[in-house]
Amino acid sequence: MTREEAIAKGIEVHEIQHTMKRRTPWHDYSRKGTYMLTLVVRERMPLLGTLDGSLEGEVPPYVALSVLGNAIVQEEQKKISQYYPQVEVWKLCVMPDHLHMIVRVKEDMKEGRHLGAVVAGFKSGCNSVYWKLYGMSEPPRQGLFEKGYCDKILMHEGQLDNWKHYLDDNPRRLMMKCQNSELFTILTDVEIAGEQCQMVGNRFLLNIPDKMAVIVHRRYTDEENARLREEWLACGERGGVLVSAAISPKEKEVLREAMNRGYSIILLRENGFPKLYKPSGEAFDACASGLLLQISPWEFHYEKRVITRAQCLHLNAMAERIAGER
Fold first, then answer.
1. Which segments of 155-248 does DSSP mark as H helices, in order?
2. What is the spatial distance between Cα 245 and Cα 270, in angstroms, rounded to a whole number?
3. Model pLDDT for residues 75-120, shown as the tens digit of each residue
4. Among the four 102, 151, 202, 207, which has the fewest Cβ within 10 Å?
5. pTM (predicted TM-score)
6. End-to-end CA distance of the chain
7. Nearest to 5 by CA among 202, 167, 155
8. For strand 98-105 and strand 33-40, is the pairing parallel, antiparallel, or unpaired?
9. DSSP H or E stretch at residue 258
């Protein structure tokens, strides 16, 4: 159920609490649906396994499960369907310090039962294994996992395939991040183009003298757009850097083509970076390869805001200053 549908049905919708572990307040978690869940080990301790394999060797990156991690896979996740026949675990990905699950609630659950209760029961089972393995005579005040969890609701076509790919690709992404940690570190209060900014990625792209700002104005003709597109991509081809906020569709098209070709990009963002931020999809690989730098002159926020005209002008002016065109 969407927020609009909930309002139409007369359900009271509260303002969203800004946390990475928030629930969707207008969604009924006792109803059938598909979800991707993320549970994080307390204090990010790598208790569930160790990263092994290689990015270039015969064995691709994978997580060698610990005794605890193996028990979660072989025993605890299977108990979910035993205690809740309406719930299926479609896919499980155990990482050293967290895990992801794709679960399907096949039919509406009885009164008093909901997804939160399912997760609480799963956590309780994992806690019992954890306590026994570490020889604890009585449960400690804190369990294996942090309080709460993150859930994503399946809403549109193609989302499920994206989730599955994300889970399958997690070990490789972690290894790339570990081997290029400096490229995934959030730097704050960095002066760029006369502004205090946050940034993530290859900061040395700022030192490359050959840079061009990718900005498409509404007044440009098709001929002008085509000519500029050729100039911008030629800059990338010769080892230069394209700088853009990628606001308009045509700007996005140029940046997409540049990323597909493996060119260097400085991307300006309306939003800053949350504490555990990392790029997603192809941007992750570009960042790990040193081909991407993301910059924001503003702090991170959770709201889904529409970028204002003033912000567009602000970021475009920054792009021009970074490229040396102002």
1. 159-179, 222-237
2. 8
3. 999 999 999 999 999 999 999 999 999 999 999 988 778 999 999 9
4. 207
5. 0.75
6. 49
7. 155
8. antiparallel
9. helix 249-261
